[in-house]
Amino acid sequence: SASQTEPRPFERVDGTFMNVFTLPPEALALEKANAYANRRLVRDIYDVYMLCSAFPPGKGIAEKLGSFTANAKRPLDEKNLKAIVFSGAVPSFEQMIIAIQRRLKE
């Protein structure tokens, strides 16, 4: 919700920064996990995977995302991830689930 938003720096293409209002990483990860559970698009699980490194693991988030990863089904469009990740290795669904689970146990 809008009441959870907070200003965070956003880097523009030219290297300058501006503040944008966004959800905290934990709340955004939960929103993306919910989106993935409802539509099973690979971009949503990839967002959860990337967001997990943006916040310290905590009991509440670990429980919620832990049950999500335990029940997550394969994405319907897994092959599309190659088009989304423009730099670096493209993780598989299994690799993302394992990395999220590992991060939550830290």
Count of helix runs: 5
Biggest sheet: strands side by side, in what order? 1-2
Described by strand count, sense and barrel closure, the largest sheet is:
2 strands, antiparallel
The Cα radius of gyration reads 14 Å
- Calculate the terminal CA-CA distance, rounded to whole Å: 28 Å
- Estimate percent helicity: 40-55%
Strand content bin = 5-15%
* Shape, principal axes of CA atoms: globular
The chain-level mean pLDDT equals: 90
What does this structure look like?
The chain has helices spanning 25-39, 42-51, 59-71, 81-84, 93-105, and strands spanning 6-11, 17-22. With 106 residues, it is mainly alpha-helical. Strands 1-2 form a two-stranded antiparallel sheet. Helix 1 (25-39) runs parallel beside helix 3 (59-71).
Q: Could you write a compact summary of the structure shown?
A:
The protein is mainly α and 106 residues long.
Which key phrases capture this entry?
106 residues, mainly alpha, two-stranded antiparallel ribbon, 2 strands, 52% helix, 11% strand, globular
Task: Itemize the secondary structure elements and their pairings.
Layout: E1 6-11, E2 17-22, H1 25-39, H2 42-51, H3 59-71, H4 81-84, H5 93-105
Antiparallel strand pairs: 1-2
Helix pairs in contact: 1-2, 1-3, 2-5, 3-5
